[in-house]
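Dear support,

We are seeing what looks like truncated structure output for some complexes. This example has two components. We would appreciate it if you could run it in full and send us the complete token output so we can diff it against ours.
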Amino acid sequence: MAVKVRIPTPLMKLTNNQSEVSAEGSTIADILNNLESQYSGIKERICDESGAPRRFINIYLNEEDIRFLDGEKTGVKEGDEISIIPAIAGGAR
Amino acid sequence: MDFTDEQIERYSRHIILPEVGGIGQAKMLAARVLLIGAGGLGSPAGYYLAAAGVGNIGIVDFDTVELSNLQRQILHSTERLGQLKTESAKKTITALNPDVNVQLFNERLTSANILDIFAGYDYILDGTDNFSTRYLINDACVMTGKTNIHGSILRFEGQATVFKAKAGPCYRCLYPEPPPPGMVPNCQEGGVLGVLAGIIGNIQAVETLKMIVGIGEPLIGKLLLYDALKTEFRKLNLKRDVNCPVCGDNPTITELIDYEEFCGVPE
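Here is the complete output from our reference environment:
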């Protein structure tokens, strides 16, 4: 099934500047693999070698952080929305 | 406290708000807020907090005013190019509201000075541009129990939240470690719509005032995302991580850390 994935500004270069893309899968892990098949190189930017999201990037299923759900095994269903939210530091200078 | 006639007139639009009143205004005048950075976020936040009558504002910055700052850093001006940002900010704030006692710290925030600087303040408004200072501020806030009003901006997107020790998560609950320096471009490469700094900095100011007066629901445990291109605000839920290295049940970080300085975003 298809879900909407929100792409953060720093990764939009990899999605032809799209801030929202569609991806297929029944778990977060599926979705990440599907994203990689569509936009080569995006998964390694989001995940480390073990396949877990990097420590400065969080993934949310709707409004909830998947770390407090089932992590990458968290199930997704039609109409869900996934957000990838990296730490950003800009402010002063 | 007793207001002067001038204060009653200056703050009349606050005082007639039932949720604020004279008591709330007196709380603002007694409040102690520290701005980390008198830049894109610190400028609008500091300007409005001063207008509101926050009585004690500290400003930490070691930069001087540059022409490229003026697209968004509204505490400064063309005639103050080259001046210390702290001095420039104080001039603007004092001209707006002489009730504000402004204290300046012309120094880089480090593990060696942060606790002394924090000692005089209850609310810490994080408007820095780099991860090393953000983690330092977070850890110091957790260790001292001070409230961290967080904002960050990039291009057309902004984030804001409130980290209040014990009441909710901290920055490390979200992001346990800073990204490695090689994975971030520098700030100048990122770019930012100047007005975005005003939106996010003022959200930080509103959250600060709400907590000072004790009204409403502060952004504790919520990450506010603003997308200027889509004109969209969203709130995500944040949770305290019991395994957090600094505010978790068994913290592994018990001393302040000076990370190598870098800024920007994971690229």
